[in-house]
């Protein structure tokens, strides 16, 4: 029983960066842009947060840190970093109408390189012997949990034991869903992604919607990177530590059939699948079999793809003009 | 009471590069009337209306609404002047409901409440007699329902001036009737309705006045009750232009291709070919006339084996073996081997036949890549062919290794036609081979077609310009909405006759074989 609760808890924690990433990507895709730069943007979001935290800690000294500022500064720098990445993507794909796949992949390479570069630089500045930066004080602020969680037993552990960014991720996902489906802005946004020519004829500023959602989506995704370093990794940045979580986030978009609220359970499921190898031990299973278990999230995504395309329900299909640039004068 | 026109256009001119789409067009539409804008394809009707609805901006000229000069720079401006356009290609989001599509883009209307909007839509529908379920998804709708959504969309925005671009093109006769009764009610309600069309019977039935455009120029406006279909046809097609294309008598014509009872449906289940039958003879040029989208493309593709048919047969009399073969049972490659060649130049020119990024030689190889004996491609023969075409047809190109997309339209056509002719076809189909070409290039193509004819090839020529069809072809098959409305002798026919056949719709067609 305890094992199960612990597993679910870990799954939620593993799932949170994925949830940020997939919510951001869903919003972006709803505007008709396939942003394969999400892994890079999450990476950039993480390193930007680390940079902010590093210099704040450096400036005031670990002892006199103001907990609120310790959260707000990395939050702000992280969002700024991912916003800049989003702007690069927007400028290339919306304004210049570059190929979205190529731009996205380039951005991912760029983001990872950027992270490793600044990560390496910070390690050098800090003069650490280890190839990592440790921001444990800042991390502690991020990891603050609700005080009463402990006293509620299993229930408290399952629902209240997480740091605030976990709840932020879930709230963002649900709010995004409500905006998409229940508001005029959401209607317009979906129209832009489905059929930009129609949206344009209806007097909607297509490019503005694309810019705003892609940038907001990038900032949300960037928070996933921040959560990963500050909470999951306890404030320890090491180059390449983020792994392929960004791609998992993109896979969740399909799994959640482009619904942010569906991304919440999907992320937790993927988070669980991602770590399930730690919890199962079959007789005679060696370390090499772990890798097979790590395939699970992707296998599940494939199955979902097959099922949704077999059902041919129009609502479960990607936005119709996903990946296509829109140019009004093109006839 | 002095009539103030709802909308008035004065000397509107619009050019796209060197092409003049509209030249000094003047137009007046009053409140509570239906005005038809009549013209052939490419006469600039849609361009003109797009300027009223803010999609294009005129180069010169003025637009007046209720007597006041206005500037319409965007679709939004058009909404503000209560102008609504229903496009030929619907602008709807498939996964949205009717209501969601209708409220799309509206901003200042209190809280976002789809139920309230749906009720308002229902009220509008009831007022004019539309049948519509506001919560139905677009992808579940028939074409006619989608059109209803489009019309209600502009009414919902309070439009007083409605522009309908070929509204009946996609409708069944019953649906057309229903649309007309709705339009009549709107007219009675004081709305101004402008209909773009090329169907004469509908013009006569629904409109109060008719304005005619021809090749971008404004020809005139007449009262419907004071005119007739033949008078309108004459205004529409204009006087005959002498072209001086040499035309020889067909030499011992034999039946080469016997097309019988072709039926074909498109993906939406709409009939695009309806019981089409004709015979193409060797040594003659058979013209195919019709408004764009009347089934020309499907017909040619059916003969080339690229189009799935519901029923019918295409019998080919093989001149070598003297055997009859049904092309319907053959693959496109087998059909090509028999000598049936298709040179189809669609709207986007390079679309079928040539690959823009490949050079001339490579494009020649698209037809010969299966030949040769080694594992490697044989390049020398295609290269010779490319050089030969460049020389004989005077293709203006820097070299034969220039990508085709860098050539001008006329040269692209020459390359395409030249390659297909080089294969010594027995049936040669050319669709719009002179589209967008200058006079000299056009004549070169005509001469090529004539040469083929003299060699005993059965040439099928799909054209747009009636003057050319009449001067070049021996016989002309006229298509209208996928039906053959007549097969005429090009030497005896007139432009008016062909024009009338082209616009003839089902219901009033009573055989056209002459």
Tell me the structural class of chain A: mainly alpha
Oligomeric form of this entry? heterodimer
Q: Give the termini separation of chain A.
A: 62 Å
Give the helix proportion of chain B (percent range): 25-40%
Instruction: Report the major sheet of chain A.
Output: 2 strands, antiparallel
Q: How is the CATH topology of the largest domain in chain B named?
A: Rossmann fold
Tell me the domain tally of chain A: 1
- Counting DSSP H or I runs of 4 or more residues, the number of helices of chain B is 16
- CATH level-two architecture of chain A: Orthogonal Bundle
**Briefly, what CATH class of chain A?**
Mainly Alpha
Percentage of residues in strands of chain B? 15-25%
Residue runs with pLDDT of under 50 for 5 or more positions of chain B: 507-514
Count the E strands of chain A. Answer: 2
The radius of gyration computed from the alpha-carbon positions of chain B, rounded to a whole number of angstroms, is 25 Å
Give the largest interface: A-B, 21 and 22 residues
Features:
A: 331 residues; ABC transporter involved in vitamin B12 uptake, BtuC; two-stranded antiparallel sheet; 14 helices; 2 strands; B: 514 residues; alpha/beta; Rossmann fold; 3 domains; six-stranded mixed beta sheet
Give the topology.
The complex is a heterodimer of chains A (331) and B (514).
Chain A: H1 2-30, H2 38-60, H3 67-95, H4 100-126, E1 133-134, H5 136-142, H6 153-160, H7 164-182, H8 184-194, H9 196-201, H10 206-232, E2 236-237, H11 245-255, H12 260-275, H13 287-294, H14 296-311
Antiparallel strand pairs in A: 1-2
Chain B: E1 7-16, E2 19-29, E3 34-38, H1 45-52, E4 60-65, E5 68-70, H2 75-80, E6 83-86, H3 98-103, H4 114-128, H5 143-156, E7 161-165, H6 173-188, E8 192-197, H7 200-206, E9 209-214, E10 217-223, H8 229-237, E11 255-265, E12 271-281, E13 285-289, H9 296-304, E14 311-317, E15 324-326, H10 332-337, E16 340-344, H11 360-365, H12 380-392, H13 409-422, E17 427-431, H14 439-454, E18 458-462, H15 466-472, E19 475-480, E20 483-489, H16 495-503
Parallel strand pairs in B: 3-8, 3-9, 6-7, 7-8, 13-18, 13-19, 16-17, 17-18
Antiparallel strand pairs in B: 1-2, 1-4, 4-5, 9-10, 11-12, 11-14, 14-15, 19-20
């Amino acid at each position: 029983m305890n094992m199960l609760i612990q597993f679910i808890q870990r799954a939620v924690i593993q799932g949170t960066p994925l949830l940020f990433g997939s919510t951001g990507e869903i919003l972006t895709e709803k505007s008709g842009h396939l942003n394969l730069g999400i892994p890079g943007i999450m990476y950039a979001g993480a390193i930007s947060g680390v940079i902010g935290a590093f210099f704040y800690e450096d400036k005031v000294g670990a002892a006199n840190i103001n907990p609120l500022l310790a959260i707000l500064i990395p939050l702000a720098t992280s969002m700024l970093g991912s916003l800049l990445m989003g702007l690069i993507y927007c400028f290339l794909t919306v304004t210049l109408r570059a190929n979205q796949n190529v731009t996205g992949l380039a951005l991912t390479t760029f983001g990872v390189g950027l992270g490793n570069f600044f990560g390496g630089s910070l390690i050098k500045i800090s003069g650490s012997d280890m190839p990592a930066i440790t921001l444990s004080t800042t991390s502690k602020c991020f990891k603050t949990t609700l005080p009463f969680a402990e006293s509620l037993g299993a229930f408290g552990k399952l629902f209240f034991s997480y740091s605030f960014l976990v709840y932020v991720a879930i709230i963002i996902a649900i709010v995004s869903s409500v905006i998409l489906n229940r508001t005029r802005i959401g209607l317009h946004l979906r129209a832009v992604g489905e059929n930009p020519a129609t949206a344009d004829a209806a007097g909607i500023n297509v490019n503005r919607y694309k810019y705003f959602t892609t940038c907001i989506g990038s900032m949300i995704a960037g928070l996933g990177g921040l959560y990963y370093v500050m909470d999951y990794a306890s404030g320890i940045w090491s180059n390449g530590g983020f792994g392929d979580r960004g791609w998992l986030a993109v896979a969740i978009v399909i799994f959640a059939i482009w619904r942010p609220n569906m991304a919440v359970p999907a992320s937790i499921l993927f988070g669980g699948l991602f770590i399930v190898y730690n919890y199962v031990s079959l007789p005679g299973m060696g370390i090499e079999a772990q890798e097979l278990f790590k395939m699970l999230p992707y296998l599940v995504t494939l199955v979902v793809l097959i099922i949704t395309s077999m059902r041919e329900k129009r609502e479960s299909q990607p936005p119709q003009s996903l990946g296509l640039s829109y140019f009004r004068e093109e006839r | 009471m002095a009539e103030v026109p709802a909308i008035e256009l004065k000397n509107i001119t619009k050019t796209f590069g060197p092409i003049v789409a509209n030249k000094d067009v003047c137009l007046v539409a009053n409140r509570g009337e239906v005005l038809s804008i009549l013209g052939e394809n490419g006469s600039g009707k849609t361009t003109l209306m797009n300027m009223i609805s803010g999609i294009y901006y005129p180069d010169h000229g003025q637009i007046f609404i209720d007597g006041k000069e206005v500037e319409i720079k965007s679709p939004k401006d058009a909404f503000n002047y209560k102008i609504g356009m229903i496009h030929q290609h619907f602008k709807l989001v498939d996964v949205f409901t009717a209501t969601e599509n209708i409220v799309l883009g509206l901003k200042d209307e209190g809280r976002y409440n789809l139920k309230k909007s749906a009720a308002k839509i229902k009220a509008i529908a009831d007022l004019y007699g539309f049948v519509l379920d506001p919560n139905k998804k677009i992808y579940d709708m028939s074409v006619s329902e989608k059109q209803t959504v489009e019309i209600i969309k502009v009414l919902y925005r309070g439009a007083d001036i409605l522009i309908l671009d070929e509204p009946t093109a996609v409708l069944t006769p019953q649906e057309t009737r229903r649309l007309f009764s709705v339009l009549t009610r709107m007219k009675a309600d004081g709305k101004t309705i402008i209909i773009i069309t090329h169907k004469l019977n509908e013009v006569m039935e629904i409109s109060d006045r008719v304005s005619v455009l021809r090749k971008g120029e404004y020809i005139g406006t007449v009262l419907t009750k004071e005119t007739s279909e033949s008078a309108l046809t004459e205004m529409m097609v204009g006087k005959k232009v002498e072209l001086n294309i040499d035309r020889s008598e067909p030499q011992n014509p034999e039946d080469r291709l016997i097309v019988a009872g072709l039926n074909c449906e498109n993906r939406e289940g709409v009939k695009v070919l309806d019981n089409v039958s004709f015979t193409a003879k060797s040594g003659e040029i058979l013209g195919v006339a019709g408004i764009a989208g009347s089934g020309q493309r499907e017909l040619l593709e059916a003969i080339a084996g690229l189009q799935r048919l519901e029923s019918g047969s295409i019998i080919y009399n093989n001149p070598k073996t003297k055997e009859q073969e049904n092309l319907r049972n053959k693959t496109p490659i087998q059909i090509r081997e028999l000598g049936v060649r298709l040179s189809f130049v669609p709207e986007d020119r390079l679309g079928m036949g040539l690959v823009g990024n490949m050079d001339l030689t490579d494009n020649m190889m698209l037809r010969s890549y299966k030949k040769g004996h080694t594992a490697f491609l044989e390049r020398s023969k295609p290269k010779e062919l490319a050089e030969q075409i460049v020389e004989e047809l005077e293709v203006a190109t820097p070299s034969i290794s220039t990508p085709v997309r860098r050539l001008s339209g006329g040269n692209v056509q020459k390359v395409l036609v030249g390659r297909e002719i080089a294969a010594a076809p027995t049936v040669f189909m050319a669709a719009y081979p002179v589209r967008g070409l200058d006079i000299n290039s056009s004549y070169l193509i005509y001469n090529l077609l004539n040469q083929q004819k003299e060699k005993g090839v059965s040439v099928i020529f799909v054209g747009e310009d009636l003057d050319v069809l009449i001067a070049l072809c021996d016989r002309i098959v006229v298509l209208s909405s996928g039906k053959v409305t007549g097969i005429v002798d090009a030497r005896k026919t007139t432009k008016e006759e062909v024009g009338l056949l082209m616009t003839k719709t089902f219901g009033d067609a009573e055989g056209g074989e002459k």
